[in-house]
Amino acid sequence: MTVKPSRGSDLVWHSKDMNGETWFEAQISLLDFTPVKSSDEEKAATIGKLLKNAVRLNSEFLDKWNGFKVETSLQFDQSWGLGSSSTLIYTVAQWAEVNPYLLHFRVSNGSGYDIACAGAEGPIEYRYNDDQLSIAESDFDPKFKDKLFFIYLGNKQNSAEEVNKYFKGSKASKKQIEEISELSEKIALSKSFTKFEEHLNNHEDIIGSILKRDPIKQTSFKDYWGSVKSLGAWGGDFVLATSDQPVKPTMEYFKSKGYTTILPYRELILS
Q1: Which of 146, 160, 207, 225 is deepest in the core (most CB within 10 A)?
Q2: 17-73, pLDDT tens digit by residue?
């Protein structure tokens, strides 16, 4: 995100995709943070809400009564759902010089892990409970990483809506939360590919039982030889697939199912 002063008293916003084409634009009043005009009123209102809450956290932010020109650029397909919303919150927090987690919790009811990822320079372990959060670096770099693949399902989920659904439905018990946390640690520390798959499968089963949804492997990949783990907003966006077979047959399997965006671990993960 780049920010430049401009004439006038409004904020002019342009969002560009990975090809440099504008996919969203808006003019937002800095008097009350309402859209003057925009290509998408809902997105413009979201930005206005974000700016308003940043000002509440730092009264000196945007207090000079001059306009700004803001431009954001994606480095991946905008339909992928790789954290564009959390990155927006994080970058606005940097601009406003406020704590990104305080800003996040003012505008979202998510756990905040994606905010931690937006500022991370490598693998991390994130914990949030009893209004306390902790972030620790992780040395996750398995020897079997060439057996890991990310497949885009073409079904971008709205994370905020999925979180709301969770809070409205049956929530995880304390025991289930402990089991999930324990499995997350086992996944991160796995040295054995077989154990890694076992922990993924157990994690997927517990999440499925909480959300009352069938795991993605049962619904879409019953005949697949490896594990398939839902990521992000469960059931959409990307899945993580494991494979002990060569790259070619692995990719051919998912392509035969109609999924053409298949990214090997090394191509996607920051190391």
Answers
A1: 207
A2: 999 999 999 999 999 999 999 999 999 999 999 999 999 999 999 988 789 999 999
- DSSP assigned state of 142: -
- Tell me the HSE value of 147 on the side-chain side, using a 13 A CA sphere: 16
d(CA 145, CA 148) in angstroms, rounded, equals 5
Residue 26: the pLDDT is: 97
State the alpha helices, DSSP H only, in 67-173: 84-96, 100-107, 113-118, 159-168
Q: Measured between alpha carbons, how far is 197 from 177 in angstroms, rounded to an integer?
A: 20
Q: What is the pLDDT of residues 196-231, one digit of tens each?
A: 999 999 999 999 998 888 999 999 999 999 999 998
Alpha-carbon radius of gyration of the chain: 21
Whether residue 57 contacts residue 98, with contact meaning beta carbons closer than 8 Å, is answered with yes
Q: How many CA atoms lie within 13 A of 86 on its CB side?
A: 20
The DSSP bridge partners found for residue 69 are 4, 12
Collapsing DSSP to helix, strand or coil, 67 comes out as strand
pLDDT for 241 equals 98
Is the pLDDT at 161 greater than 90? The verdict is: no
Structure tokens at 53: 């809450």
Q: How far is CA 43 from CA 18, 47, 52, 220, in A?
A: 19, 6, 14, 32
What angle is formed at CA 164 by the lines to CA 123 and CA 174, rounded to 5 degrees?
65
Q: Are 205 and 217 a contacting pair, CB within 8 Å? A: no
**Lookup: tokens for 210:** 């909480």
